Structures are given as structure tokens and as C-alpha cells.
Amino acid sequence: MAEKFRACVLVTPGKMEIQEFDIPKVSEEEALLKVESCGICGTDKHIFLGHSKTASFPVVPGHEFIGKVVRMGKKANESMAVFGGRLQEGDRVAVAPASLPCGHCDNCLSMPHRPSFCRNRFGYGFRTPPIFGGYSEYILLYPKTYVFKLSPDMPMKRAVLAEPVAAALRGVERASSTGEACFRVGYGVGSNVMVIGVGPIGAMAVACLRDTGAGTIIAQDLLPSRLGMAKRMGADILIDGTQPLEKRLGEVSKLTGGFGPDLVIEAAGAPVAFQESLEFVRRGGKIIEVGHFTDNGTTTIHPYTICFKDVDILGSWSNPMVIFRDAISFLERTALPVQDLVTHVFPLEEIAKGLELTGSEGVGKVVIVP
């Protein structure tokens, strides 16, 4: 193994460099991961543009990564949370990127089921080195990391979707939370659902909804290619988001018997999309806001609409690490062509091109192979 490796460093917003680092020493409680591939998330692009309030600089971004364990400390299995059997050198794994809660702060002690609330948590792809993200040839895995073993036979374009599926599945599971007993019990089999914004996360939400028994799934987006992908992931109805709102409201109302969707998932990350969610959702329905992991601005809403519709609005910030187990199970068994979501693969040197293309017409998930 070489003693040096390369990583893409985002020095400041808008400025990236490929830098060289020493291969780190592995302590008894750590492991060294050779990165196989890493997806470019829309959040990474927002970090590059300076929109994130949580990233620190310089940073090695990339949190949608998979790889092979090439070195292990003798106590790594005891120090990390390993799913799928004991970890060994040569194992192919996915890593929950935000998997290092301190366990001692007020939020960890009072809400251990919400690790994303930890006051002291740091994660891969969001912090200054030596914490590295997936835009790197190697990553040192620290104690408390959640590691999920992957089949060596799962195609890369499917395996690399573990993190996006986890994010989408978290949004769907938020919708499944129990409502008032005398009305409904949240999202369930047969529910009419609308997903606004069917980029990679929205498309995976469509796939998870289809897998969990949704009734009619309505997908809305501005880009035709994304609508086409949503159709392949199981959407029944496609809505052109460039059409006037009143026309779209009328169409969705007709499709849902005059009521509106039981559930609306906002995955566009555009403030106006949240505003529209309130218009589309039925009275007594539910909205899941999963698109605004970075601050994309504000929008105008009418509190009366929330009150009149008696609607539940739930946020989905990050996800519990263990949900990766369910995401990987989904990827292993689904017959949906989820791997088709990956449309572009670039080497580390072309990461700027990958970031530029992310979010464009005809582009699904962009993946970096270091």
C-alpha cells in the first residue's frame, strides 16, 4: 500500500484542491477504508456554494461513500457498531456518515433516539481534516462509527445508493408515525402520496413508497428527465412543475377524488415547494419536509391554511444510523431499477465537473470513483 493518498479539499466555498496526505496510522480501535465510490449529494453542492451553516472549512466533502476495509485495529469490532457480522479486512462496507454522537450531552442523554441532535457530533464529509469524507482515496474510521457490511456482488451503482436510500426512507418512516387514533394512523398501505422534487432523494422516496404499499404516487418536478426517472421508480402520475399552480392543483385534486394527497413529501429543497405542499395536501393530511438540509431561503405561508387543514408538518433532519440496515435490505431485494439513478461516474480529478452537472437536466446521481 502506498504511504500517501489524495483527497479533494474544499478550502473555502468555491475553491477546491486535490491535496496529498500521509496514510494514517490505525489505532487498536480504528480501521482504514479504501473508498470504492462516493455519490455527490445536493448538500455537497450547497456546501461548495457556501450555503451550509454546519460545514467547517477546509473540509473533505462526501458522505455517500462505500469502500473496502484494508487495515483494522484489533479492537475495532468492539469500538464500532458493526452490522452483518464481525468486521474483517477485505470486507466491503457502507458507513453511516453522521455516526459519532458523543453520548454525554443533554440531547444524547434525553433523546438517544435522535443522534442528529448531539451537540458535539461530528461526521464524515462535514468537518475539517483529519475527519475525511468520501472525496478521498482513504478514510480513517473512528470509534463509534456505524459500519454496515455489503455483499461483494452488489453492483457499485446500487451499493453507493445506501445513504440516499437511508435519507429517503427516514422521510417515509416519519410519515408513518401514528396520528390521532380516531382519524388516521399516519401514512400507510393505500395512501395517496405526492413527492415534490424527484431528484435522487425524491426518486428514492418514490421507490420506498412503492415498496411500502402506497396507493397512487404523484411525482412533480421541473425537469423532464427527473420525472422519467420517478416513473421508473414507481410513480403513477407525473406533474410538470412549470405549469401554473392552479392547473396543477386542479389536476391533483381530480386524481385524489377532490381531497388532495394524504401525504406530501417535499424533497425539492426549494422554499416555494414547501409553500405548494400546504396547498396540495388534503385536510387532515401530513407533510414531510426533507429537502432543506441547507438554508435555501424563506417563503410566505398562511398559518390559517395549517390550522384550517388541521395538517401535520414534520421535519426530517439526517437519520438514525441503524436505518442503513433497512436501506441496504431494500437495495438487496427490490426489483426496481434503482441503479439507473446513477447516470454519471467521474474520477477524483473531475469532481468540479461532477458538482457542476449535479442537479442538471438529464443528470441523476453523479458518483466519484477515487
Briefly say what this structure is.
The chain is α/β, with parallel strands linked by helices and 370 residues long. The protein is built from 12 helices and 16 strands.
Strand and helix order = EEEHEHEEHEEHHEHEHEHEHEHEHEHE
The CATH superfamily title of the largest domain = Medium-chain alcohol dehydrogenases, catalytic domain
* Derived structural class: alpha/beta
Sheet with the most strands, sense and barrel status: 8 strands, mixed
Quick one: overall form? Answer: globular
Q: How many DSSP-defined strands?
A: 16
Helical percentage: 25-40%
Task: Tally the structural domains.
Answer: 2
How would you describe the overall organization of this protein?
The protein has 370 residues and is α/β, with parallel strands linked by helices. The chain is built from twelve helices and 16 strands. It folds into two domains: 4-153 and 337-369, Medium-chain alcohol dehydrogenases, catalytic domain (Quinone Oxidoreductase, Chain A, domain 1); 166-315, Rossmann fold (3-Layer(aba) Sandwich). It has helices at residues 42-49, 76-79, 106-110, 156-159, 162-175, 200-211, 224-232, 245-255, 271-280, 303-309, 323-333, 351-357; strands at residues 4-12, 15-22, 31-40, 64-72, 81-83, 92-95, 138-141, 146-149, 193-196, 217-221, 237-240, 263-266, 286-289, 312-315, 342-347, 365-369. Strands 3, 4, 5, 6, 7, 8, 15 and 16 form an eight-stranded mixed β-sheet that branches. Strands 11-10-9-12-13-14 form a six-stranded parallel β-sheet, sandwiched between helices. It has a two-stranded antiparallel ribbon with strand order 1-2. α5 crosses α11 (323-333).
